[in-house]
Backbone:
């Protein structure tokens, strides 16, 4: 290893991460750089690292992240910024990730780059080549307690820029917002939280949630979350504009459900419902002392629901699970913080002969109690029980999972006992449910990427909003295989 200099103001703490930059092996100080991240083999140790070109926001070039002692890592490249890393090397024996940056692609000396790292432990040390600089921060988990993903990091930058430049926000909303006690550029001021929604649905969505007593995730004062990367808000921005447009809704869904004859209203004349829990407590989940269940809180809820009549005359309900920036670690959830054994709540449904999940592929019921599998299990059971109960007179109830393909962190198989069943959370679940048509997964890019020309006469106004706010939706494959 060539000569390096102590990174300042770094310092060592118990179990801290080591982060450093060292020259490449070719001997050319400009042609190559290696960024190395190492942590001790402590279960649950986490880090995130960002390399940025001087003059650009952090996260615009690439980011790497992992969780120890068995590293799960990924890389995100912002195509607008360019300069992707040449390669990433995963060394499980030393729990090390090395990323090589091809300096020939840069427009300046390597010393113009800087890096930062975050660790579960708020003390760390680093070593850097002469001219490099960095900083160390504490654990990064948000917006809903999940491990911060590289996609989330890039979306924070994108959403902050969108807020600052878009005409969709008022002058007051352009200010920084407070989220979980800290001022953050990717959040709206609390008083402007409703501006997190597409203008065309702001009033109707607020009234709908209020009338149905639906819980806003991270919301206050009957308003949505002020976090611009909120998944519930993202779901509404894509789907709720279609709640009164059955033709447009059918056009979006028909590639997945070619038997759609006509869309049917779910409730109050709307063709899209939100936070659907069913007319009955199908999963026998605990109910508050008031005897009332709340949609979106303390019981299994589908992010959205649609219903249609098929060409064969049968009625089908589709429960929609929507993902945006979510990523999950390997925390077991079989026991709640209160001490409740969650397995006992769902065990009777799981052990029943008509369970929609292939139990023969599982080594134990507990293997499902890791997110996102815990959520997938509950939704699949909910769909099955709704079908048996003829919810809204439906003959068939299925689950549709929608998530961005560019969110690579979501694909991690978090349950150790399920890693042999597939290379992604969705592929594992598809195998567990089988080819019965009751579970379908599609990327957001494929479902919404091939949008009509937003500049054409008569184009729906929400389309322009979607492609500007969620520009990644048009960066991936836009055809359904």
Residues:
């Amino acid at each position: 290893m060539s000569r390096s200099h102590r990174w300042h103001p770094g310092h060592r703490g118990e179990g801290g991460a080591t982060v450093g930059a060292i020259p490449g092996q070719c001997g050319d100080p400009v042609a190559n750089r290696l960024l190395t991240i190492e942590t001790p083999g402590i279960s649950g140790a986490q880090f995130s690292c960002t390399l940025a070109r001087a003059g650009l926001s952090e996260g615009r070039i690439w980011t790497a992240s992992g969780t120890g002692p068995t590293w799960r890592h990924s890389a995100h490249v912002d195509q607008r910024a360019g300069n992707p890393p040449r390669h990433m090397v995963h060394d499980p024996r030393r729990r090390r990730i090395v990323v090589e940056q091809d300096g020939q692609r840069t427009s300046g000396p390597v010393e113009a780059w800087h890096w930062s790292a975050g660790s579960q432990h708020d003390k760390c040390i680093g070593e850097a080549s002469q001219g490099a600089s960095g900083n160390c921060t504490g654990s990064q988990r948000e917006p809903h307690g999940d491990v911060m993903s590289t996609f989330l990091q890039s979306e924070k930058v994108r959403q902050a820029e969108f807020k600052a430049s878009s005409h969709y926000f008022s002058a007051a909303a352009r200010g920084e917002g407070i989220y979980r006690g800290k001022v953050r550029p990717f959040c709206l001021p609390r008083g402007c939280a409703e501006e997190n929604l597409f203008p065309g649905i702001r009033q109707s969505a607020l009234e709908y949630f209020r009338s149905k007593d639906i819980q806003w995730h991270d919301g206050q004062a009957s308003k949505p979350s002020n976090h611009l990367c909120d998944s519930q808000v993202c779901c509404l921005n894509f789907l709720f504009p279609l709640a009164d447009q059955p033709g447009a809704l059918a056009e979006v869904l028909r590639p997945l459900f070619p038997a759609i004859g006509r869309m049917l209203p779910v409730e109050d004349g709307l063709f899209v419902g939100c936070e659907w829990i069913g007319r009955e407590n199908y999963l026998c989940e605990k109910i508050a002392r008031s005897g009332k269940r709340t949609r979106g809180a303390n019981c299994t809820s589908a992010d959205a629901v649609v219903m249609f009549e098929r060409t064969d005359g049968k009625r089908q309900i589709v429960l929609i699970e929507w993902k945006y920036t979510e990523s999950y670690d390997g925390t077991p959830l079989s026991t709640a913080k209160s001490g409740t054994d969650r397995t006992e709540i769902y065990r009777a449904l799981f052990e029943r002969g008509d369970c929609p999940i292939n139990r023969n592929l599982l080594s134990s019921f507990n293997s499902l109690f890791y997110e996102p599998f815990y959520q997938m299990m509950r939704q699949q059971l909910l769909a099955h029980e709704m079908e048996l109960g003829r919810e809204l007179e439906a003959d068939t109830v299925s689950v549709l999972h929608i998530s961005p393909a560019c969110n690579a962190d979501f694909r991690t198989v978090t349950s150790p006992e399920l890693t042999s069943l597939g290379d992604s959370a969705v592929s594992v679940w598809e195998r567990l449910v089988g080819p019965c048509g009751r579970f379908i997964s599609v990327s957001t890019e494929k479902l919404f990427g091939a949008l009509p020309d937003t500049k054409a006469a008569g184009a729906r106004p929400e389309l322009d909003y979607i492609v500007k706010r969620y520009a990644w939706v048009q960066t991936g494959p836009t055809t359904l295989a």
